[in-house]
Every structure is written in C-alpha cells, then in structure tokens.
Amino acid sequence: MHASRLAAGALAASTSILLVAYVVEGRETGRDRDPAPSVRAPAASNWLTNLWTVEFDIEDIAEVRVERARFRRETRFQGMRYGVGLFPDLYVSSTGLTGRYSTLMLTPELEQDWKSSGRPKLPTSFDDETRRELLVGRHAKLCHDSLSVQTAGSHNSTGAPDTFVLSGALLWPANWVETIKTNPPARVADALQETQPLFTALDAEVPYDYAKRVNQGTVDLPLWNGAQGSVVALPLYNAGRTPISAGDFRKIKRSITYRITRKPMELVFMKQCGPNESPPRCVRDLVRTPYLACNDCDPVSDNYATDGSIHFVHPNVEIRLNIDGEDVTRFKTSTPSGSLQYFDVARRRRAWSTMLDVNDRPTGPIAEETTGPNGWVDDFTGAVGTGRMNEPNWYDMPSPFLVPPPARWPRQRIVQEFLVGVKRVPEFGFLHYFVAVDTKPGHYRVRKSRAEKITERDWCRIEATPRSLSDMPLSALDDTGWQSVP
Prior knowledge:
Elements lengths: L2 H11 L6 E4 L14 E2 L7 H4 L1 E15 L2 E16 L13 E9 L3 E7 L20 E4 L8 E2 L1 H4 L7 E5 L2 E3 L1 E7 L5 E7 L5 E4 L1 E5 L6 E7 L15 E2 L5 E2 L4 E14 L2 E5 L28 E4 L2 E3 L4 E3 L3 E7 L2 E2 L4 E3 L5 E3 L2 E12 L5 E7 L8 E2 L16 E2 L4 E2 L9 E11 L7 E11 L2 E7 L2 E3 L1 H9 L11 E4 L3 E2 L2
Antiparallel strand pairs: 1-13, 2-25, 3-4, 3-18, 4-5, 5-6, 6-11, 7-8, 7-9, 9-14, 10-13, 11-12, 15-18, 16-17, 19-23, 20-21, 21-22, 22-31, 23-24, 23-30, 25-26, 27-28, 27-29, 27-32, 32-33, 33-34, 33-35, 34-36, 34-37
C-alpha cells in the first residue's frame, strides 16, 4: 500500500468523533446490503426504517506541529442523510443514504486530496444479533426507569442523557490525488471504487429532546484525545521519516450542524362505543377478550357481566399507539435470533374507595387499596396465555369482583388512577386518567375520565403527590349514569 494513503488514516483518526479514513482492500468489504428486519404486522410503512430522518454536515479542521513544520488537515461531510428505524435497537438501512465526503491534507512537501465520487454505502455488519449496519444511539433518562432508554450506540459514546449519537461508518467510492511540491510539481492520481473503497467512521453525540419532532442545531466538537474509542491511528511520516503522533494535533475548527426529524407519535385513549358505533373508532365491551379476566362471565351490558355468583362491573379501557397516522399497537418484529420485539406498556396504578351516602355523595373514611409509595404500584401489563409471544396488554378493565347479590351491593365508590407510557420509547408521550365504579343496592354507575396528555415532569409530580382525592378530578369521557341491574 502507498505510504501516502497511510498518512490519510493518521490525520483523520486524530479527530474526536473518531473520523478515520483509510483504504480497505477487497471487493467483499464494499458490498452493499440491506437486511431489513422481519416484520410480523400489517403492511409495514416507512416508519420502520425512517422513524427518524437524520441530516448533518461536519467541518473538521486540525493542525499538526512537528518541530518547525506545520501540517493541516481539512475534513468535511456534506449533505449527509439517512433514516433510522426503532427496531432492532436503532436500525439504519442503505435506502436513502446520501452525502459527500472530502479530506484535504497539506504538508510542507505534499498535498493530498480525497473526494467521494459516488453515493456512500453501509459497511458489512459485524453484529449477528441485530444485523445493525450503522451504529447510532439515543439516551433519555426519565424519573421512572421503565420509560428511560439508552441504546448500544449511546453506550459507545460518553453516554450523556438527552443525546442522540450520529454515526457515519461508511464506505465511499473516491478519487485520490497527491501532489508533491517539487519544481515542477509531481502529481499522482487514483480512483478508489468497489475493490478499494475509502472507509470513514465517526461518532458524534448531539443534544436530543425526545418530546420534540425536530431537533437541530450546531455543536462544537472536541478534538479526539486518543482515549475516546478504540480506533488505531495509522502512522504519518514527514519527509525525514519521523513519525507524527496524534498528540501533536491542534483543533482549528470542529463542528456539526444537524437536523433530526421524527415522525409524529402518540397514545390514543379510546372512548366507549355508543349506538351505531364500532371499533376501531371506539372501544367495545371487553368481556371475553382473551387478554382479560372474567372470561366465563356472560355480558349483561357493556359495563356489567356475571357468571351467576360473581358480578363484574367495569369500565372498558383501550389505548392505541399511532405513528404517522398508522396504528402500530400490535406491531411485532423478530431479530435474527428469533426473539420478538414490540411496543411494551408501562402502567402505574393506585386505587382507593369511599362509602356513599343516601344522596350518592362520597363520605369518609377513605381506604387505600394499594400500599406502594403514595399508593402507586406497577400494574400488570402482560397478556395471559399467549405463549412465547407474550404480547403487551393495551386493554384494561379495572374493577373488583362483587360477590354479594346485587340487592346487597354496598353504597361504595372505587376510584383508580393511572399513568401510562411506552417502555423505552418516551417519544409517544404519557397519559393520566381515572376510572370510577359506584354501586348501591341493585344499581351501578361506571365512569371513565378523559386522558390527559402529560409531560415527564407531570408524571414525576403526580407520582410524588399523596393520594387525597375521593372523586375523579378530570372530566368524564364515558358515564353510564346510574343503571339498574336486570
């Protein structure tokens, strides 16, 4: 290999986002592949590989001083763009990958100019588990651990919270020109194509707010000090064959201008189906739903079922997940190892009850049903009897079973409060809602509040607030009014 190509590697490897440029021998390394994850869901839309669209430019100028000589390296990535999917662990495909790359190196004796001559390609993956082609990452630290996320790509950086790691471990067909400063100048040119693609690697951590649809800005990047990563710098020699170490580098300018655009993501809280309404516009009676209890009960109404000895008065709660207008609640994907990934529910609950007077107004004392901090517990979210798939359960029928016959039902109100999010995907946001079941001899009433869309700060505040309510503070979405038992 020509010594000047080794020089390119050392100058680029000194940068703090681990920019590396060197020649990779062999056609196999330059092969472009796109092993999209196996999808077990309705027809997959482009959110699978383009949940986030990443765009960035990097300008990286450094100088080396050896004795009295100065060496300058200018590296630029321009018009970089690719899509990032959520599964598995931030997957990047080759579809839509664009950008330009150049490195100019100036020494007292020569000038080297590397430029991309075509579309960049993803390198062959070394990760058999996820078949990840490009390592990117994100880190969001929230007050409830199940909502937080730190992917593998973030672990490879400094791992600071509220960041997104951009990567560019890319292969480039490139042109290379070297000019030796003789009189007259001597020039050598070469084209690096499929057999000898130029390889570049970078790992840049930028600020990221999961709640924003668009994250953008310009960030100053530090010079790589040799301790951030495991890149081995190839040696650079001056005319006297004296090696130049990475420690001799001085940053002149290093910055990244980035834009990370996310598709809209939301949790949708469904209202009860009314006359002439049916799913998916609303939630039906969930009795005998495979995920839930009281499967042997016979439904009497949308909110009351019985098997003759047990009486089940209940609301019907369904939450759906939308990405860019598509229902992804039941989305599943499989990794090459055969394990399944899906959107998993994080649900916190606390409950209390109070007696009702003859005018159906709450009266003391108030009794808590749960004993966690401030009454909160992790609510059961797994599906029963679904085998290895064990799908998360976005349905709920929060209510106790009543054993006495309806004529002896107590004058009582049971209130349950909920916080709901998506585990490891805070981008969907969070919901806060209540349900209440009232009973009295021969009668019942079921209410479900509207779901309030809250922030992480709201979640933390609500969890830290002691329970002191005897009714639902949010307006009702569904209210049966008092109903008599047939």
